[in-house]
Amino acid sequence: MSEHHPGEDVRLRTAAVVGTGLIGTSVGLALSARGVTTYLLDRDPEVAREAAALGAGRVGRPPHPVDLAVLAMPPSVIPRALLEHQRAGLARYFTDVGSVKVPPQRTAASVGADIGCYVGGHPMAGAERSGPSAARGDLFHDRTWVLTPSERTAPGAVAHALELVRLCGADPVLMDAAEHDRTVALTSHAPHLLASLIAGRLAGADPSRLRLAGAGLRDTTRIALGHPDLWTDILRSNAAPVAEVLREVAGELAVAVAALEWLADPDPAQQDRGEQELHHLLALGVTGRERLPEPARVG
Amino acid sequence: MSEHHPGEDVRLRTAAVVGTGLIGTSVGLALSARGVTTYLLDRDPEVAREAAALGAGRVGRPPHPVDLAVLAMPPSVIPRALLEHQRAGLARYFTDVGSVKVPPQRTAASVGADIGCYVGGHPMAGAERSGPSAARGDLFHDRTWVLTPSERTAPGAVAHALELVRLCGADPVLMDAAEHDRTVALTSHAPHLLASLIAGRLAGADPSRLRLAGAGLRDTTRIALGHPDLWTDILRSNAAPVAEVLREVAGELAVAVAALEWLADPDPAQQDRGEQELHHLLALGVTGRERLPEPARVG
Predict the structure, then answer these.
(1) Which residues of chain A have a CB within 8 Å of the CB of B218?
(2) Distance of residue A136 Cα from the nearest chain B Cα, in angstroms
(3) Is B37 left (phi over 0), alpha (psi -120 to 50) or beta?
(4) How many other C-beta atoms can be found within 10 angstroms of the C-beta atom of residue A173?
(5) Minimum Cα–Cα distance from B239: chain A residue
(6) Is A217 in Cβ contact with B282 (below 8 Å)?
(7) What are phi and psi of A60, to 5 degrees?
(8) Do A289 and B250 touch (CB under 8 A)?
(9) B293 has pLDDT over 90
(10) DSSP string for residues in A243-297
(11) Which of A51-60, A199-208, B85-94, B128-137 has the lowest mean pLDDT?
């Protein structure tokens, strides 16, 4: 490779994936395909064997510390796993793929883990389905993969995590952990909860009414299929930033309801006001949606 | 055809499409492909010519009344269009494709239109893009197409509209107009406004933060790309049922925000309560989403 790359100076020869669900197995598939010897661990050995059978690596602990371990588990269990696997000498450096970055980092320090050799990570990829069978080696291709080093993070941890991102075909973005958490509250966690609320309204609806559901409703509520256990964990770990976004949405929702009520007012001026307010909210939605980057490719 | 069908007794030989946008042009393409002589009218003659060039029919008024005219325009302008085209003798029977059914029917009667030869209709199909160029002859294939006859609707109007639905390859559903409007408030109009509110939060976000937007957010906010003028019209026409759904969602949203705040409470019992409430909302969302019928085929 003639092109300079931040991860070029380090080579990832060995890795471990702890937690072989959708994301962990996809990491294992990507690394194994690029020649990295990858060890697979899961609290359920059967799940690790399933990932290994798909080509994500070999089951079990490595004989010597690997270059980098990837903790692929819900945010709340990352600190304890980091401490435990550091003490067992699993790897020189650690990263994770959790959707929230401040609390794991803070708790890891407080439980006594060495956070110098750890850097938080979050690939912007996923699927509604979970488990190894939903994994794909190209899951991270051209996706953003955030890394959140702190002033205490060793340069070697960042370099090895950048090499992981490169081998997975993703685009690395370095970001402050708190900024990351506020951002995903806006782009992922609050939208998830709102999609769940919309989908929840359908739970009690008469089946004949659901025949009128179209592609728009299916798209809008697709993320609500995410696993409630995992998402409770994510929302709990990022509660304050998510609550802040949702309070703002609640304020806008109150305006929308008021605007709809003004339309029924006998005073034409109130009707006009309601119509203008609705038009403003809808137009702002178009503006916001048009700002979203389109995916580089399908898949 | 050996299979009995409610629309079998009538044959649609001639039709008119008034308003050659996405839906109207798609109707024209479907009817023309099935051999129905179709006349295309639009307040902008250039748009009608564009639809005709795509194969949706011929531009201009028919020399004699056609069997059925399809009014493909926003709900608020349907009553006046119905009255005008009835007086001009455009067709024996009329239907429309508007997203709301009670107000056009009520207003049509009050402005003096003959609502006996009119039956409301609403195909469950669409696209974010608008205009003739986005039209497709198979847009309605295997989609639900609601018809809302009243006790004043002539049987011939229903029979001709059913034949239209059949020729477009859609599945007809007969439904009370008020029930239709309450249902689409739940399945389409309230979700649209909520998607607009979520998308609107992105309008002022820093571009670097939008790099963290993934496929989930794109799906959830896709419908927010709908045209603000059309959607203001739809929401205005169905204001009371939409407001009712949104008030319920606002109540659930307040519960969700409270649950997130309980998670930060020093009392572990409050934290548990918050977690349980969030899990309940998320699980209800999964239940509701799983009830949605999947499309019969892609496209």
Answers:
(1) 292, 294-295
(2) 16
(3) beta
(4) 17
(5) A260
(6) no
(7) 115, 170
(8) no
(9) no
(10) HHHHHHHHHHHHHHHHHHHHTT-SSHHHHHHHHHHHHHHHHHHHHHHHTSPPPSS
(11) B128-137
For A58, the token pair is: 């070999």
Distance CA A62, CA A37 (A): 10
**Which 200-229 residues of chain B touch chain A by CB within 8 A?**
200-203, 205, 207, 209-226, 228-229
Gap between the Cα atoms of A18 and A16, Å rounded: 6
Q: Specify the pTM.
A: 0.85
DSSP conformation class of B293: P
**Contact call for residues A171 and A145 (beta carbons, < 8 A):** yes
Q: What is the pLDDT of residues A260-298, one digit of tens each?
A: 999 988 899 999 999 999 999 999 999 999 999 876 544
Tokens of B126: 């669409």
Complex ipTM value: 0.85
Place of tokens 């994500």: A56
In whole numbers, what is the pLDDT of chain A averaged over residues? 93
Is residue A290 within 8 A of residue A272, CB to CB? The reply is no
Both structure tokens of A39: 């060890």
Buried b (16+ CB within 10 A) or exposed e, A118-131: bbbbbbbbbbeebe
Res. B61: pLDDT tops 90:
yes
Give which of A143, A145, A217 to mutate to test B binding, by max B Cβ within 10 Å.
A217
pLDDT in tens, A76-130: 999 999 999 999 999 999 999 999 999 999 999 999 999 999 999 999 987 667 8
β partners of residue A68: A15, A93
The pLDDT value given to residue B2 = 35
**Quick one: pLDDT at residue B5?**
45
